[in-house]
């Protein structure tokens, strides 16, 4: 397999060998299992396209370069010496870029810790007219029958500067494990997981988007109609799922709590619940949002009859964005619950 040069990689970055080769996915929890506000790291899903690199921590460095006044090269100790912050954030995979409209419910909610990207950009000083920050990982390998020299994503400069985007060193208070992107990854709260580049090694300020496969061929949603344009898979569309009840122990005439988690790029202001397959909807109680965390919703329900009931939940944001019933990654979640006589 030919190994093209890495234009974005600094000279002093070692080329990591791979611990694991090729695409992989680990998804432990399904919606009924996601009962805790914070997902334990060991239970959080993981995705890698090219494999998992073996990053030698003492040879690792991060460059912040491109259209900046002052290029930075930071060691792990340099990063640790900068002010650290934490944010609790929902972490959601957009699903396979080869089948982006299949809802995967591949999601969790974790506390990330590290250095604000805005702090690094303040030190580097982006040039006037720059509009994006491109991030590069140390992983390389084959995805979709093509060799990729590295994983590369981008995000708008405004998002990079909003104070929530992190160059992260910890998850739930512990150092990032190798699989999780350690020693250092990008975390973009409010954006799909694909944008949070793991095994981060270079940040490049630019006046244009990345031209890599993971921002052009993959993770670009097709236009909604002929007049529209393809859109980057950046901001989290409203989404929600039912944790409980499940199809056991639900009895006619007995109250039960319907509950689950809802989130979006913006705060969720309303979650509606249906117990009749989407014919009628009732607003649930929704907790307010902290950071970019998911929000809990609850509704008391007393089933009146035995038999199958189709439960569904639908989140809505302040600006009115909501979930579709058509095949989309944030399609309304439904569950059939069989109600019995006690
Ligand atoms: N370097 C690199 N970063 C990456 C990926 C990757 O393949 N390589 N996959 C992305 C995708 S699609 C997702 S959903 C998240 C998954 O992060 P996790 O494994 O910590 O859950 O990492 C993103 N960052
Ligand atoms: Mo993903």
Question: How would you characterize the overall build of this protein?
Answer:
By secondary structure, the protein is mostly beta strands. The chain has two domains: 3-232, Sulfite Oxidase, Chain A, domain 2; 239-339, Immunoglobulin-like (Sandwich). Helices cover 6% and strands 38% of the residues. It is built from four helices and 26 strands. It has helices at residues 76-81, 117-124, 157-160, 213-216; strands at residues 17-21, 24-26, 46-48, 51-54, 62-66, 72-74, 85-92, 107-116, 132-137, 141-143, 146-148, 152-156, 166-171, 174-175, 185-187, 200-206, 220-221, 231-232, 239-244, 256-263, 268-274, 282-283, 285-286, 295-301, 307-317, 333-339. The chain has a five-stranded mixed sheet with strand order 6-5-16-9-12. Strands 7, 8, 13, 14 and 15 form a five-stranded antiparallel sheet that branches. The radius of gyration is 21 Å and the shape is elongated. It starts with 16 loop residues before the first strand and ends with a strand. The model is unreliable at 1-12 (pLDDT under 50).
């Amino acid at each position: 397999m030919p190994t093209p040069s890495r234009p974005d990689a600094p000279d002093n970055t070692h080329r990591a060998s791979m611990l694991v080769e090729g695409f992989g996915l680990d998804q432990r929890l399904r919606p009924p299992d996601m009962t805790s506000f914070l997902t334990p790291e060991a239970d959080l899903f993981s995705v890698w396209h090219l494999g998992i690199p073996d990053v030698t921590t003492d040879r690792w460095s991060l460059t912040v370069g491109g259209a900046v006044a002052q290029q930075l090269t930071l060691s792990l100790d340099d990063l640790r010496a900068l002010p650290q912050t934490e944010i609790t954030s929902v972490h959601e995979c957009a699903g396979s870029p080869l089948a982006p409209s299949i809802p995967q419910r591949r999601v969790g909610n974790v506390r990330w810790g590290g250095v604000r990207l805005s702090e690094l950009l303040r030190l580097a000083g982006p040039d006037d007219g720059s509009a994006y920050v491109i991030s590069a990982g140390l992983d390389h390998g084959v995805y979709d029958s093509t060799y990729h020299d590295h994983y590369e994503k981008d995000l708008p400069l405004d998002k990079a500067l909003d104070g929530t985007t992190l160059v992260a060193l910890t998850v739930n208070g512990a150092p990032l494990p190798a699989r999780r992107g350690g020693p250092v990854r990008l975390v973009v709260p409010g954006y799909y997981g694909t944008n949070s580049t793991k095994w981060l090694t270079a940040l490049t300020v630019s006046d244009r988007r990345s031209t890599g496969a993971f921002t052009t061929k993959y993770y670009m949603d097709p236009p909604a109609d002929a007049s529209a344009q393809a859109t980057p898979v950046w901001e989290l569309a409203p989404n929600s799922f039912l944790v409980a009840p499940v199809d056991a122990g639900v009895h006619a005439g007995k109250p039960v709590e319907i509950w689950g988690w809802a989130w979006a790029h913006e705060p969720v202001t309303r979650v509606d619940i249906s117990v009749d397959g989407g014919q009628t909807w009732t607003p649930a109680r929704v907790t307010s949002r902290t950071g970019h965390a998911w929000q809990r919703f609850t509704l008391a329900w007393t089933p009146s009859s035995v038999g199958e009931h189709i439960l569904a939940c639908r989140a809505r944001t302040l600006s009115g964005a909501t979930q579709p019933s058509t095949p989309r990654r944030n399609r309304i979640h439904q569950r059939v619950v069989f109600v019995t006589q006690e």
